[in-house]
Amino acid sequence: MAAETGHAPNRSYFAQDGSFHLNGAAFFNNAEINIAQELENLDGLAAELENLDGLAAELALLADLESTAAQIDVATGVGLSGSVASAADSLAIPVTHNHVAKTTGGDAEALTLANGTPGQILTISLVANGGGDGTLTPTTKTGFTSIVFADAGDIATLRFVDATVGWVIMGTAGVAAPPVIVA
Known about the structure:
Layout: E1 12-14, E2 20-22, E3 25-26, H1 30-67, E4 70-72, E5 79-81, E6 83-86, E7 92-93, E8 99-104, E9 109-113, E10 121-129, E11 134-138, E12 146-149, E13 155-160, E14 167-173, E15 180-182
Parallel strand pairs: 6-8, 7-9, 8-10, 9-11
Antiparallel strand pairs: 1-2, 2-3, 4-5, 10-13, 11-12, 12-15, 13-14
């Protein structure tokens, strides 16, 4: 290949139009560069699909946890079972059952959650929205500050690790959107 006028042979350079030249011949043209960019975009889409697969698995786990009729308290061996309702304006979320069906009132509610028993799993679902959001702030927690239940169908599943780590979020789901997790 002959070098272009003004350029030394056996040298590579980028022209002002962005094309790469080697010994005066264009190494990549715009079509090849566009193909490379599209391939990078496809890699990004593949990663997004993997994230959706992970979300589907998490939702399936939540469905399994929701349908569990009984749970064993690993610390005491006592079974926690069933569901308990928590009425509007009742701010303390009970830790005596494995599921709490919460109803919010017309005003915002500052919900509390006491420490549980190590290994305890608790699912909280907003079954009726009275108009106000329920903001849950556990006594001891790791990885979040609070969870905002805004719409009927919002669900959060938590696990109590110990008195130091406290409650951690195992998963969330919702009809319109999952509950908001405040870091």
